[in-house]
Every structure is written in structure tokens, then in C-alpha cells.
Amino acid sequence: MPIINASQFITELDRSENLCDQLALALRQKIQQGILEAGTRLPATRALANELEVSRTTTQLAYDQLSAEGYIVSRRGCGTFIADMAATIASLSPKPASGNYSGLSAYGQSLLKTDFYPYFDTVAKPEKDSDFDFRCGLPDANLFPHKQWLKAQRKILRSTNLNHMHFLQAQGVAELRKNLVRHLKRNRGLHCREEQILVTSGFQQNLQIMMRILCEKRDQILTEYPGYPVVETMANAEGLQVSKVEVDESGISVSDLEKKSNSNARLLYVTPSHQYPLGVVLPVERRRALIAWANKRNTFILEDDYDGEFRYAGAPIEALMSLDDNERVVFMGSFSKTMSVGIRLGFMVLPESLVEAAAKARWCMGGFNQVIDQLTMAALIADGTYDKHVKRCKLIYSKRRKELIGALSKSLKCSYKITGDQAGLHLTIWIPGLNKTKMLKLIAMTETAGLRISALVNRQFSGAVSE
Ligand SMILES: Cc1ncc(COP(=O)(O)O)c(C=O)c1O
């Protein structure tokens, strides 16, 4: 058989990447595709190196690799050839995936069926530096306390206590749980024990744990409408039945909740501190009514303390869980808004009866959170840095809020009403007579002007970051 030349199996090399790997890959693919047949003689390593303008070591290493894999054989004094077994090896090699695997579990299949847009693989940041991004759920990343975080982390890493590195407790680092107990008592009026706290990677994991330990397929989960769309997506992925309960100007409607809930109702998701997205703070009568409903139904309430730390007028409102004396409420906290979504750190305060199952479920989801980050957060809470940081953020956000409301009053020529400006990172502007067509036009105009907003069209979100 004639000797082939390099151009028959490789057309170009990217000189910024590993040349040996590229060469081996090109040859392997041509053999697997049957383009280079058994017995074909390959150029000598020196000739190939000259032809490709690479070092001889590169060609030698590529041949060695393919020889070790069984694709080629070298015969002393004769040269290097495609091995007789190459076709067999190629047929045993995994084929490139085409479409999804057909043997997926019911869960795997429901993941494929569920629409994950726009959370999955997208970056929730302004496209241009000059953009003004007013979309729901975006804290200012520049406010992250870099210096304090670094200082605390350095101190932890310098400590000689290596036990931290062997930490295996799914419930979370004791220091963090202890400090959270004090923090919650002081700031959220919530009295709980360290044993009730489970450290997690944030709200999404909290929700997944609860769905996993409390729901069977097709059970009902009730959520606010309009509400946090992540809940619906995740519940769909778990095969649950999602029912949406109307939110009026005082928050979630208890009469609609009575109407929508069925005998399979297992969970109710609410954002009582600052309703997402309307911004209503749930009044105490409704809080009591929700707890009475949950007691009657034997259902659990998932209290997402969304924006709970950012209350501008007066003291923070007590957590819904603090009104519950029948183990019906699960309090869910996250550091995504007060610190950064990137640290993936959150927690739950659980009724005692759910602690063991929830901690075991957490362990099944990757064990536990990164220990150094947990210790860092614990240190920042313990020495008051976290409280100071939240206070500073609150001042900055409240100033921006005032400026925004002032600018709106000067420039918005139509009649409008603002709600939800007492707490949190967003407010809602109601413009009467804005139908869907006009709203879509408005969104397009804001985008052209380098401004990004989340809009509610017929109670459906459009353009929300965490939509
Ligand atoms: C309503 C609501 N709850 C909770 C969170 C926090 O989610 P996580 O802790 O998964 O980042 C967000 C984040 O955008 C949110 O919008």
C-alpha cells in the first residue's frame, strides 16, 4: 500500500492548542469513520513533522498514543500502519451523541420536556456596560463586600484547624447555623434552634429538597400568580401539578387559595416579605389565614423570605414562621440578594419533624456546601460585618429608589401608580390602559434606549431576569 500524506487526514492545526492531541484526534476520527483502512501505511514521524511544521516529538507522541489505543501498529524497519483491529475498535467506540438517550427515567424525560428558558446557561447581566438594568431580581454585583470576604476567608485559611477540611455534616457548619439562629432572632423575629437549620446552596435547592421529601408525582403545589416562575419550572420538572393562586393588592388571596387547592395539595409557596413580583408585604390577617389553611389541610407553607432583609420603612416584618405553632411553615433564606447569587449559599429553618429527611436529601444532592464559604459567612455574621453590609446596601438601594421615583414623576406623562416600594430590590409601576401590544412596544423602546425592565403582560412576565 502507498504511504499516505498528512493532507489526507489533517487539514489544519490550531497552533495555540495542543498539537499532539489534534493530530491524534484527526487520525483517530479518520480511522473510526473508515476513511483510513487497515493496512494503510502512515508517513514516518520525521516526514510528518516536516510536512506539518511541528516537532518530531509531537508526531511521535501522537503515534504512541494511537498505538497504545490499538489503532496503529509499528513494524520495525517497515513503518507504521493502520491496525487490522482498527475497524473493530472503531465499532466499539462510543458514537457521538445524536439526540437524547431514549432510556431516560421519568424524571430525566420530564427535564427534557420542561422549558428551562431563560435560566439555563444564560448570563443575567447587562449586555452592555452602559445598560441600566432594572429587571426583577438583580442585586448590584458591585456591592459585594470583597474586602471583608477576602479578609475573613484569609483568616480561616490561615487557621491550623484542618478539621474543617474533613467536615462531613450535611446540615452545615455548626458556626454558621449558630450565628444564623442569633441573626434570625434579631432581624426576622424568628426563634429557632440550631438543629432546625439546614445550610443549602440557596432557594432552588431548598425548593427541590421540599418537593422531594414531601411530594409524590402529580401532587399539587400552589404558587402565587403572578409569582416567581422558577417555582413552576422546577415543579414541572418534578412532575407536580402547579396551581396558581391570585395575588391582589394585599398579597396572596386566601379565598382563591381555598378554591384552587385540592386534596393532593402538599405545598404552598409564598413570598410574604415582598411579594415577587408585585412587592406587596403580606398583612398579618392573611398570614394567620394561611397558617389556618395549612393546619386544616395538613399542608406545608414554603416561606421564601425574598427581600426580607431589605425593608426601607420601619423594622423588618416578622417572619410568617414566627406565627406558626403547629410545624406548618418552612422558612427559606438565601444570601443571593444580600451578598451575591454567585456564592450559592442559603438555608432553611425546618419544623423539627422534617429535619432528618431534609438533611438526608441535602446530602444526596452533593453532600454539603463548600466549607470555607460557610465559615466565611459565619464569621461575617458573628462580627457584625454582615449586618453592616446589609445596612449599607439598604441605604444605597433606598437612595436609588427615591431617585427613580423622583425621575418617574418628572418624566412619565401618563397616569400611573407605584406599589411595592417599601421593601426589596424592585418596585411595580402600574400604567392603566397598557394593553399587550402597547406593552410590547414599550419594552422594545426601553431596550433601544439601553434600559432593561421586567414587564407584566396579562400577569405573565416578559423580560424578567429570574423569569
Ligand atoms: C423570588 C425569589 N426568591 C428567591 C431567590 C433566591 O434564589 P437562589 O437562592 O436560588 O439564588 C430569588 C432570586 O432571584 C428570587 O427572585
Automatic annotation (TrEMBL):
Q: Which SMART domains match?
A: HTH_GNTR (SM00345)
Q: Where is the HTH gntR-type domain?
A: 17-85
Q: Which organism is it from?
A: SAR86 cluster bacterium
**Record keywords: Ribonucleoprotein included?**
no
Question: GO terms for molecular function, please?
Answer: DNA binding; DNA-binding transcription factor activity; pyridoxal phosphate binding
Q: Which Gene3D superfamilies match?
A: Type I PLP-dependent aspartate aminotransferase-like (Major domain), Winged helix-like DNA-binding domain superfamily/Winged helix DNA-binding domain
Stored InterPro entries: Aminotransferase_I/II_large, HTH_trans_reg/aminotransferase, PyrdxlP-dep_Trfase, PyrdxlP-dep_Trfase_major, Tscrpt_reg_HTH_GntR, WH-like_DNA-bd_sf, WH_DNA-bd_sf
Q: Check the record and name the Pfam families matching this protein.
A: Aminotran_1_2, GntR
Q: What is this protein called?
A: HTH gntR-type domain-containing protein
Its keywords, alphabetically, are: DNA-binding, Pyridoxal phosphate, Transcription, Transcription regulation
Give the protein family.
Answer: In the C-terminal section; belongs to the class-I pyridoxal-phosphate-dependent aminotransferase family.
The keyword Endoplasmic reticulum belongs to this UniProt entry's keyword annotation: no
Q: Which SUPFAM superfamilies match?
A: PLP-dependent transferases, Winged helix' DNA-binding domain
